[in-house]
Design a protein that fits this description.
Strand order of the largest sheet of chain A: 1-2
Radius of gyration of chain B: 19 Å
Largest sheet of chain A: 2 strands, antiparallel
Oligomer: heterodimer
Helix content of chain A: 55-70%
Order of helices and strands of chain A: HHHEEHHHHHHHHHHHHHHHHHHHHH
Strand content of chain A: under 5%
Shape of chain A: globular
Shape of chain B: globular
Number of helices of chain B: 12
Largest interface: A-B, 80 and 81 residues
Number of strands of chain B: 0
Order of helices and strands of chain B: HHHHHHHHHHHH
């Protein structure tokens, strides 16, 4: 049972690292980076070591702090419980910590007070991993608080930047609203069930919901929705994503909003077990649809790269919420897979945005252009990430979105409910709009003509490129090998979400129960990406032959203003007879046909995102009240 | 052996050679019939093939502002996905890859050629291309909504509790129950699909993205030589694939017992579909503005498709 100590060591290590960095790492950057790397890698290694016992052997690992084991069936101590669901989230969160840390070393090099940065960074990592592994509701709340405060501070870390402090403040206010709702919910549950252990709460409340616990359900859904940044609670985080340093934006989209999703799954599937109620399923599907569509249309209107990516983060989490709202094995599998894929490709995209900022000093899309000449590898990584998030086969986003569409469609066919068919339609259209806004970014930032003033730009250093390469490789691997991923880690995680009884029995000291109950399997071998590999091999051969046999007729890189390299204008871009000049169509001018038809809709949402924290807090409270009312009327 | 068969399928039938030949033939027929409708003599039917080989012999110029790798690779990637699409379509009732292609995968494969055109045009660095790709993208958003609604309507009629909804299921259903176009509730869906085809292929009046007289063929403005030849070929292939998809989904396969006769009948039906939804419409309309195009697809075409979906859902 050596494994039982792994989760707690991983979490404690990260918190210990945070203090060690503050004590020893404020002066010397090598000591600081070494400490950060040691503890982050330790957490990742310990988490990945749990794959064999939890995912392969199907065990559930429990650990009682200070050996306070349950007495007469009542949990009295704080317990850690790692089931396949928690470990699944732990895996990609831990991988994100490592990539983000490696990227930070160089990216943050020119900032001051880096000791504080890494302290907060490790606190954030520890909070996320602690929340993923914990089996105690109050401990979960503590971790949420740690995450909220570390995130707010990190969002405002570059406080000399315009809007950074404002973003931190907004995050703090709205995050605190969410946290206090969670605390209130926890208190109500403790009042009713006299325990704080998630497994035991689930067992006490099964089929036994009182009005007080239903109020707690509404509060907890609201609280974790604020943490998952779903509509209408998404308003403050866009600023935080935009002003935080790129590795922190990656942490936000890869880990912080995923723990909101995990919290929702724990609350709905394992504690309250209300996902078999149709009203609850429909509520989540509607929230998911609204989130994905509204966020993607807002993204189409953005001028700044990181704000655009932030809205896409929100939109993709909408898919995850919709999928777990379907409450079918295929839907939950697709949702979990999309959560992981979103971590991979959105992390990659934020790192690319960070690379652009590092090289060019701005992410304002109207001021950039033609960067693919200067940063070819960043451009290639960005295109991979953009195709993955838009769900183009054979990248990973396609595999998970496909599962979600199929799940929604099948659910609609089974229940005869038109809502699920509408959800499929909205999901597909959202996906195309995602593609549109990424086409806008590639056109505006990477293609087109380079400004003469941007000639100094160079590609980013190696230590920043390695995380991007790893991300791109994962995008392709997860897309091509999705059947393998499904068998090894997705299937256990999905079954863990559906087996709350198992979770309870193991926690109360019966390890044999870990494999009891029914197990679903998902078999999707229809889409066979191997075919694509054969085709790409053939195409690569053809392209190689074409390139070898073609004479080299490529023009030299020529900037506007510097002529005489191309006297007859053969390699210049066509300008209807005019002399070659600088002309670049930027993002704000694109998709005019779309924006004109939707101008009234855009006006409404422009007013909705007015930047006023009071209004944002009001949206949160109103949204929470609506959810609570729905829960009260329909779920009882 | 399996690999060898796969390679033969990819390269010869129904892959590259067969599909390109039929596609270019359809393009030629389209031009000839259009000319006759406008009281012109018109080019010979194999003119697109002459054009293709002529372009292959021309010099390939990569503009100085372009990203060379993306610029050169885009037409090949587009061709690649189109050939995969060809393998998913049961030409003359012959199925490849066990005929198991999910319709949602088809939707996504259909977007790849458009994406390649967009990325290729974008990488050329021309402002004309930038305007063109923005229009191409809006066109794509426009027709994707009715397309998914049409597919879901078909799925409701044909699907019977299967996890994956494949083209093979549609083919089998039509053999058992007759062509889907004779199903009253699906007639609006068939009309909507016919209206989607011209936008997907990019023919008048929905060729806003490649408006020659206005933005000099948009994304293709800088292309020359082999890549341009490939893009022209891709456009013809799309013509074949879209009409074949309509044939497969709504009319089904006519079985005569002779494989060659089956294939010939299939191609003839495709030809008819091409003439009805592309040539005829082309001959009587003028190009739309992009905002009108978008509005047309999200109101009229999506509305027609939605009528079909609601009728099907109501159990008609």
């Amino acid at each position: 049972m050596m494994y039982a100590h792994f989760p707690v060591i991983a979490v404690m290590g990260l918190f210990l690292g945070a203090f060690l960095v503050e004590i020893f790492g404020t002066k010397n950057k090598y000591i600081r980076n070494t400490i950060v790397m040691i503890f982050v890698l330790l957490a990742a290694v310990l988490t990945f070591a749990l794959i064999k016992p939890v995912m392969v052997n199907g065990e559930i690992i429990t650990y009682w702090m200070g050996s306070w084991e349950p007495v007469e069936g009542w949990a009295i101590g704080i317990g850690y419980e790692v089931d396949a669901l928690g470990l699944f989230f732990g895996l990609f969160c831990a991988a994100t910590f490592v990539l983000s840390a490696i990227y930070s070393f160089r990216y943050m090099d020119s900032d001051d007070h880096l000791g504080h940065y890494y302290t907060l960074f490790l606190m954030l990592c520890g909070g996320v991993l602690g929340l993923v592994f914990t089996g105690d509701l109050f401990n979960m709340f503590i971790m949420v608080e740690i995450i909220t405060f570390a995130s707010a501070a990190l969002a405002a870390f570059r406080n000399y930047k315009f809007g950074a402090l404002e973003a931190g403040f907004k995050y703090l206010v709205i995050g605190s609203v969410g946290s206090s709702m969670i605390l209130f919910g926890v208190a109500l549950i403790y009042l009713q069930t006299h325990t704080l252990n998630i497994a035991q709460i689930g067992n006490e409340m099964a089929g036994n919901l009182t009005p007080v616990t239903i109020l707690a359900l509404g509060l907890l859904i609201m609280g974790f929705s604020v943490k998952a940044f779903i509509f209408p609670f998404h308003t403050p985080v866009v600023d935080s994503y935009a002003t935080a340093p790129a590795p922190i934006s990656m942490m936000f989209s890869g880990t912080v909003n995923k723990i909101g999703v995990l919290g929702l799954i724990r609350v709905l599937y394992q504690m309250f077990r209300v996902m078999d109620k149709e009203a609850m399923q429909m509520t989540l599907v509607v929230i998911g649809m609204a989130t994905m569509f509204i966020a993607v249309t807002c993204a189409l209107a953005q001028h700044r790269l990181k704000r655009l990516l932030a809205y896409h983060s929100i939109s993709q989490v909408g898919y995850v919420i919709m999928a777990i709202g379907l409450a079918t094995p295929l839907g939950v599998t697709g949702g979990l897979f999309h959560a992981m894929n979103h971590t991979v490709f959105k992390g990659l995209l934020f790192l690319c945005a960070g690379a652009v900022f590092y090289a060019a000093g701005t992410t304002n899309m109207d001021k950039l252009g033609g960067l693919s000449k200067k940063m070819p590898l960043t451009c290639a990584c960005f295109i991979v990430g953009a195709f993955a998030i838009s769900g183009i086969p054979p990248f990973n986003g396609f595999a998970s979105k496909w599962m979600i569409y199929l799940a929604a469609y099948n659910k609609g066919m089974e229940t005869g409910n038109f809502l699920y068919i509408a959800a499929t339609i909205v999901a597909v259209v959202t996906s195309v709009m995602t593609l549109a806004s990424f086409i806008k970014v590639t056109q505006t930032v990477f293609f087109g003509q380079l400004k003469a003033t941007n000639d100094y730009i160079r590609d980013v250093p190696l230590s920043m490129r390695i995380p991007m390469w790893i991300g791109s490789a994962l995008c392709i691997f997860l897309g091509v090998g999705y059947n393998f991923v499904n068998k090894t880690i997705l299937n256990p995680a999905m079954n863990a979400a559906f087996s709350a009884e198992r979770y309870f029995d193991v926690m109360m000291g019966d390890p044999a129960a870990a494999s009891a109950g029914t197990n679903y399997t998902i078999n999707l071998s229809v889409w066979n990406p191997i075919l694509w590999l054969v085709l790409f091999a053939i195409v690569f051969a053809a392209v190689a032959i074409a390139i070898i046999t073609t004479k080299k007729t490529v023009g030299k890189v020529m900037l506007s203003g510097s002529d005489n390299q191309d006297p007859d204008g053969k390699y210049a871009v066509f300008f209807s007879g005019e002399r070659s000049q600088y002309s670049h169509v930027v993002g704000s001018d694109m998709f005019w046909g779309f924006r004109k038809n939707f101008s009234k809709y855009f006006d409404v949402f422009h007013k909705f995102h007015n930047g006023n924290v009071n209004d944002y807090a009001t949206y949160c409270v109103v949204g929470g009240i609506i959810i609570t009312i729905i829960v009260f009327i329909f779920v009882r | 052996m399996i690999v060898l068969t796969t390679i033969l399928q990819i390269l010869i039938f129904p892959g590259f050679l067969f599909a390109s030949f039929i596609g270019l033939l359809l393009a030629g027929i389209d031009r000839k019939v259009l000319a006759r409708m406008q009281h012109r003599i018109g080019p010979p039917i194999i003119q697109p093939m002459y054009d293709f080989f002529k372009l292959c012999g021309k010099e390939t110029i990569v503009p100085a502002a372009a990203n060379r790798h993306v610029y050169m690779l885009a037409p090949w990637a587009s061709l690649c996905s189109l050939i995969v699409m060809c393998l998913f379509i049961p030409v003359g009732g012959l199925t490849f890859f066990s005929g198991n292609a999910d319709l949602i995968i088809i939707i996504y494969l259909l977007t790849i050629p458009a994406v390649c055109l967009i990325i290729g045009g974008s990488s050329s660095g021309s402002p004309y291309a930038a305007v063109g790709i923005s229009r191409e993208m809006v066109t794509m958003i426009a027709y994707e909504l009715p397309l998914i609604i049409v597919f879901l309507a078909i799925a409701r009629v044909v699907g019977r509790g299967e996890l994956v909804f494949s083209i093979k299921t549609v083919a089998e259903y039509q053999i058992a129950n007759g062509a889907l176009v004779s199903h009253i509730a699906l007639i609006p869906a068939a009309i909507a699909f016919l209206l989607i085809i011209p936008a997907e292929v990019g023919t008048q009046p929905f060729d806003t993205a490649e408006a020659e007289t206005e933005i000099c063929e948009g994304p293709l403005v800088e292309y020359s030589g082999k890549p341009l030849a490939l893009f022209k070929l891709n456009s013809s292939l799309k013509m074949f694939i879209m009409s074949a998809l309509f044939t497969t989904l709504f009319i089904g396969v006519v079985y005569t017992g002779n494989v060659i006769a089956d294939v010939v009948i299939f191609v003839a039906i495709c030809c008819l579909v091409t003439i009805i939804c592309m040539t005829l419409v082309h001959a009587v309309t003028a190009r739309l503005k992009i905002e009108h195009l978008f509005k047309f697809y999200w109101t009229v075409v999506a509305g027609i498709a939605l009528v079909s979906l609601i009728l099907v859902w109501a159990g008609l």
